[in-house]
Write a structure and sequence with these properties.
mainly alpha; 3 domains; two-stranded antiparallel ribbon; two-stranded antiparallel sheet; 14 helices
Length: 290
């Protein structure tokens, strides 16, 4: 506050203030032996401002340690040095030589900054045609790098990959599975099986769970769990058999039997055939029944 002085009873009498003057002030203020007083010496307005600050700090000190800069004492204690500086008191360090940063250096740093989450979300929506919710989940779960790693060497539907990373893994975690064991290589091999037509996308979750529990590769898991896709001829044979078993329903309903037979087909095939193929074969065979 810039006052000439602040004196308190812990250090008085001193500074030209006599013992009698201390006693007189104590009597005037009706102080007990556990009380203290403070004298602020300066012009009245400045002194009043300073004493207000003293009162504020005293009240803070009753409940907590005031935020301040303190100096270390020789006896390993500390003592008040000055208040913490505010923004108005911050200034350039005068003892350090000025460093000039070139625009080229700034440009180089800016070009290597990580992509902001909002920018990443917008980019993958536009680049991979993902839904906003799926893109948000991939960003929030920090799965964008895994997603793009898989997509970099695969032509599989981006939504299928995104769905597994954003939703399937989360569901498996809720079921108590240690999804940290599902690394990029397991994911990449699993999606490669889907892309090659070896397994259906509907059994991806089963393959991932089996690979972890049995400590096997996705391909080994697919074979062990009998999830390898059937050939088109094998699928057609099963559909022929199913139509024969339900011949009367097909004759009565015609193409209207599609829904019921589609459900029966997928149940019998147990995920070992692509739904589009099953639908096409069923429709063609029903329409050709006379």
């Amino acid at each position: 506050m810039g006052v000439s002085g602040i004196f308190h009873t812990d250090e008085l009498p001193a500074y030209g203030i006599t013992c009698k003057e201390v006693e007189d002030v104590s009597k005037l203020l009706k102080l007990s032996t556990n009380d203290a007083f403070i004298i602020v010496a300066d012009e009245e307005e400045k002194a009043r401002n300073a004493i207000t600050e003293v009162q504020r700090r005293a009240k803070i000190a009753i409940t907590e340690v005031p935020e301040e800069t303190r100096k270390v004492l020789d006896n390993a204690n500390s003592d008040y040095l000055r208040p913490l500086p505010t923004a108005s008191r911050m200034y350039v360090e005068t003892d350090i030589q000025t460093t000039v940063i070139s625009r080229e250096h700034i440009k180089k740093i800016r070009s290597n900054l990580p992509e902001l989450p909002v920018e990443k979300k917008v980019r993958i929506i536009e680049q991979y045609d993902l839904s906003e919710d799926m893109a948000s989940q991939l960003v929030r779960l920090d799965k964008v790098d895994d997603f793009e790693y898989i997509m970099s060497s695969s032509k599989i539907d981006p939504t299928t990959v995104g769905s597994v990373l954003a939703y399937t893994l989360k569901e498996l975690r809720r079921e108590g599975l240690d999804v940290s064991k599902i690394d990029r290589m397991i994911l990449k091999e699993t999606f490669a099986l889907v892309e090659a037509g070896n397994i259906a996308k509907e059994v991806i979750s089963d393959v991932l769970v089996g690979s972890i529990n049995e400590n096997t590769t996705p391909k080994e898991t697919s074979i062990k769990l009998n999830l390898i896709m059937l050939s088109e001829q094998e699928v057609e044979d099963i559909i022929d058999e199913l139509i024969l078993e339900n011949k009367k329903m097909v004759e009565d309903r015609g193409i209207g039997a599609m829904g019921a037979l589609m459900g029966k087909s997928m149940q019998k095939l147990k995920g070992k055939a692509d739904g589009k193929l099953v639908n096409k074969l069923l429709r063609d065979k029903i329409q050709n029944i006379k």
